[in-house]
């Protein structure tokens, strides 16, 4: 389902069960046969139930007397849960998911840049500067460029010093990582440094309006690049 490799039997069981739900092997309303599933996975019933508790907490399954344990409709899932987001972006064939994540970025990140321009500490600015330098040093190394891009956006959210926005960082990062993979796979990516530098310079200057506008322009360009990549076959 994904390149992420969970540690331990518990994590592997959670991922295996989630994969079946995401692939629609278990569609909405499917009632799970726990004894048969326990035997198939060769785990104890306790271990299986612990894994199912994780998925229940994420809204993916539910358990009711007389009905048993069953798969919930997607509208019941906790879409802001980082695991649910990661599983969906890794498994989904629907490009609309990335489109929705881009819409979230367009709402959240410009506001975060505005706040960061007002609150960023010297340590925050140095951290953003390092991410920008890594981005410039990455050159044509797509993986290094993606990691530097993720670091910049994570550190910007941290620079808001808003606990809710800092929690949103994980969601933004997952969507951004999948977007970067798709864009880099479809064509040679443009130099990301100038657009990110505009955001950084506005934050350093303590100019909230300029920071917000620069981030909005960056996210808009990101959306345009994603739309182009979705229309192109991957390079190979």
UniProtKB/TrEMBL annotation:
<protein>
    <submittedName>
        <fullName>DNA-binding transcriptional regulator, FadR family</fullName>
    </submittedName>
</protein>
<keyword id="KW-0238">DNA-binding</keyword>
<dbReference type="InterPro" id="IPR011711">
    <property type="entry name" value="GntR_C"/>
</dbReference>
<feature type="domain" description="HTH gntR-type">
    <location>
        <begin position="7"/>
        <end position="74"/>
    </location>
</feature>
<dbReference type="InterPro" id="IPR000524">
    <property type="entry name" value="Tscrpt_reg_HTH_GntR"/>
</dbReference>
<dbReference type="InterPro" id="IPR008920">
    <property type="entry name" value="TF_FadR/GntR_C"/>
</dbReference>
<dbReference type="Pfam" id="PF00392">
    <property type="entry name" value="GntR"/>
</dbReference>
<dbReference type="InterPro" id="IPR036388">
    <property type="entry name" value="WH-like_DNA-bd_sf"/>
</dbReference>
<dbReference type="InterPro" id="IPR036390">
    <property type="entry name" value="WH_DNA-bd_sf"/>
</dbReference>
<dbReference type="Pfam" id="PF07729">
    <property type="entry name" value="FCD"/>
</dbReference>
<dbReference type="GO" id="GO:0003677">
    <property type="term" value="F:DNA binding"/>
</dbReference>
<keyword id="KW-0804">Transcription</keyword>
<dbReference type="GO" id="GO:0003700">
    <property type="term" value="F:DNA-binding transcription factor activity"/>
</dbReference>
<keyword id="KW-0805">Transcription regulation</keyword>
